[in-house]
């Protein structure tokens, strides 16, 4: 536990938009505040979508012009975070994405904790250079991966920095999620007129909603259950066309962005995640913490560290449509299966509770400050 509860921590994140890294930044920041740390947030854009309890005086917007050019945005943020750091004088700086970790280097703090929220070495060469800069920076003492799989991947890519790489899982505030899940304000009433399957996420190639919709169309489960997809993104038009072409417009509903997606998860039969790849996938954790079984693609990292096959849900190979169809058919044919697996959901993810993982951050901060 902390020896000096007035240590200063600066958290760096892109914005407070809906996203796994952003949720983690807020969750851990609030947990550190509850434990007496002086926590401030440096955010790169004025986007606020996630509910939080952080005082406005502790949130510093580096670039208030959301439409500025990329060059101005990045150069401005580098200058502004340096100014903020000199004023705030943080004992520890924590970046919650790989780019926020890069930006954190320009605080020139001697104790920086980076985060590779995704494996940057699986992306383009520009991201490789950014990640390498973070790895090499002397002030960066540790780099967090949100799952064992992610840490294994980045260690394989840059083995000489293995001593910097550590795993701290993403976490959720179980109590807050349950409160939010009971809030029905703004929820479309027609949703509850028929049992439904939920799916949440950005409408992108990565999340592979195309596979989910196609599998749902071929499964017997579409006879009894609708499919509700919450999220926005570049594939909205394409997915709408797919739904229309499959004559599923009265069964599959794209609801767009929701600031509070939790009632949709809470009232669903179960959640499906069909992603091609993940780093962690916090929506799986959220669904399990709300007592919902999950069917998820067995990506190289993330889902299998939460979903225990045939215990609190099921895993299938990424992009394997026949396997997903078979699982959906199995759920349709065995009416007790969902309730059986859902009973195990909450208990199976207790190790991801915010209090437990917040303590890991506290121990890391104290260790860095004592050296």
TrEMBL record:
Q: Write down the species.
A: Christiangramia antarctica
- Protein keywords: Glycosyltransferase, Transferase
Q: Which residues form a coiled coil?
A: none
Where does the record place the Glycosyltransferase subfamily 4-like N-terminal domain? 18-176
**Can you say what this protein is called?**
Glycosyltransferase
Looking at the record, the residues that make up the Glycosyl transferase family domain are: 193-346
According to its UniProt record, the EC number is 2.4.-.-
Q: Which Pfam families match?
A: Glyco_transf_4 (PF13439), Glycos_transf_1 (PF00534)
Select a single GO molecular function from the record's annotations and give it: glycosyltransferase activity
| InterPro entries xref list | Glyco_trans_1, Glyco_trans_4-like_N
């Amino acid at each position: 536990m902390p020896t000096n509860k007035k240590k200063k921590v600066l958290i760096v994140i892109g914005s407070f938009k809906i996203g796994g890294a952003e949720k983690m930044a807020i969750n851990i920041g609030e947990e550190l505040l509850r434990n007496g740390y002086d926590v401030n947030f440096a955010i790169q854009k004025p986007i606020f979508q996630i509910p939080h309890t952080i005082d406005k005086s502790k949130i510093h917007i580096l670039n208030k012009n959301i439409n500025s050019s990329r060059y101005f945005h990045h150069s401005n943020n580098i200058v502004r975070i340096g100014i903020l750091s000199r004023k705030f004088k943080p004992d520890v700086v924590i970046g919650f994405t790989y780019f926020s970790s890069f930006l954190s280097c320009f605080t020139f703090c001697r104790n920086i904790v980076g985060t590779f929220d995704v494996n940057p070495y699986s992306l383009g060469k520009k991201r490789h250079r950014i990640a390498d800069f973070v790895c090499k920076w002397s002030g960066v003492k540790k780099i967090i991966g949100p799952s064992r799989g992610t840490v294994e991947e980045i260690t394989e890519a840059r083995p000489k920095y293995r001593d910097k790489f550590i795993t701290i899982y993403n976490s959720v505030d179980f109590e807050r999620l349950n409160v939010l899940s009971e809030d029905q304000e703004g929820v479309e009433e027609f949703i509850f007129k028929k049992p439904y399957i939920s799916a949440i996420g950005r409408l992108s190639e990565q999340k592979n909603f195309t596979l989910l919709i196609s599998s749902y169309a071929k499964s017997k489960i579409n006879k009894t259950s609708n499919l509700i997809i919450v999220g926005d993104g570049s594939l909205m038009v394409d997915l709408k066309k797919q739904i229309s072409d499959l004559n599923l417009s009265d069964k599959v509903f794209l609801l767009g962005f929701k600031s509070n997606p939790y009632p949709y998860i809470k009232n669903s039969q179960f959640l499906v995640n069909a992603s091609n790849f993940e780093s962690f996938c916090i929506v799986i954790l959220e669904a399990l913490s709300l007592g919902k079984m999950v069917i998820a693609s067995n990506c190289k990292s993330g889902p299998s560290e939460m979903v225990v096959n045939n215990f609190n849900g099921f895993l299938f190979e990424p992009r394997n449509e026949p396997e997903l169809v078979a699982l959906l058919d199995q759920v349709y044919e065995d009416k007790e299966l969902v309730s059986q697996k859902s009973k195990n959901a909450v208990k199976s993810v207790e190790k991801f509770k915010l209090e437990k993982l917040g303590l890991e951050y506290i121990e890391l901060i104290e260790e860095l400050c004592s050296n």
